[in-house]
What we know:
Structural class: alpha+beta
Largest sheet: 6 strands, mixed
Strand content: 15-25%
CATH topology of the largest domain: Aminopeptidase
CATH class of the largest domain: Alpha Beta
Strand order of the largest sheet: 1-2-6-3-7-17
Number of domains: 2
Radius of gyration: 24 Å
Shape: elongated
CATH architecture of the largest domain: 3-Layer(aba) Sandwich
Number of strands: 18
Amino acid sequence: MADLKSTDLIRKLIAFDTTSRESNLELIAFVQDYLLGFGVESLLVHSEDGTKANLYATLGDAGKSGIMLSGHTDVVPVDGQTWDTDPFQVTEQDGKLFGRGTADMKSFIAIVLAYVPVFLERGLTTPIHLAFSHDEEIGCIGVRRLIDKLKDMPVKPAMCIVGEPTSMQVVTGHKGKRSFTANVRGLESHSALAPKGVNAVEYAAELVTYLKNMARRIEKDGPFDDLYEVTHTTVHTGMISGGVQLNIVPKTCRMEFEFRYLAIDDPDALEAEIRGYAKDTLEPLMHAVSPDTGIDIECYNDMPGLELNADEEVVTFVKALAGRNDHAKVAFGTEAGLFHTRVNIPTVVCGPGDIAHAHKPNEFITLDQIAKAEAFMDRLVNEVCAS
């Protein structure tokens, strides 16, 4: 059992407003000072503008490959949400801790930090690596600079556990995601002369319709993976805007769309199909009126999925720590896919809390989930320590 109460550290971490639009440097400085108090130095990998940082530290022999425990420090906004308590001050009630980030996912980080002195006092035979990132909630952006550092390290972690809220179930897969903007360039005209213009909104609407038909086709024909709640790849348009007023044929329209794909699906083929429809079907119709028109599609976020076989070492190891024989896959994305595909570190997702309680007003984690995570850590201590 940890010397320091995990709940005390949860309270400290929640008190830092690390909404993704804000800096996380105060929280990172707290963690850095906390680790230094046990003689553990940290590597900080800052964002390009220097306002945020990832933290990487090793407990034990840095020259040996060990187990990485990973979590993100940022949280989603509370804007427009009605909370019964202060979201940045933990409130305990009815066996629950309420606060922004309690479920997703500062509780995991706090529990890991609470066990730092335990690992060190017991004597590590296998090192523990800590990786705490920023800007996960806006597309797993921040961890990519840390990953670039990890690629160049002479010794990399042998495996990784990302502590996103899974109710301590071992997650072996999640969908990948690609996010796009499409800017449609039309030609203005008076609406009374509509055929002489190129209506950017209407062409955007044709692209949205095509995306919806893709989604229906995939929902009907697959491929499918029954371990997911939504068993197929999804295609979704989330935002669209264009036009000035009704009697002007709109010159521009902007839309954002995404697909969240299964590992057994081909994201390159999906993207190529969408681009092909815009280039080969829509643009020729637009160019027949004006060659200056067109559709510019940009992929602004590419987040790889995660897919592991149930018999891989990291899966069986973490199942033993969690005291479970089952495994699952989740619809939401995590940094696990990046660690697994970009650095070749076998990675699973397993952490306390329920994703259903995250991102909402009155977000909470139960004390029972904290106790289960501490039991997980107790087993990990027994695995990696000499005594």
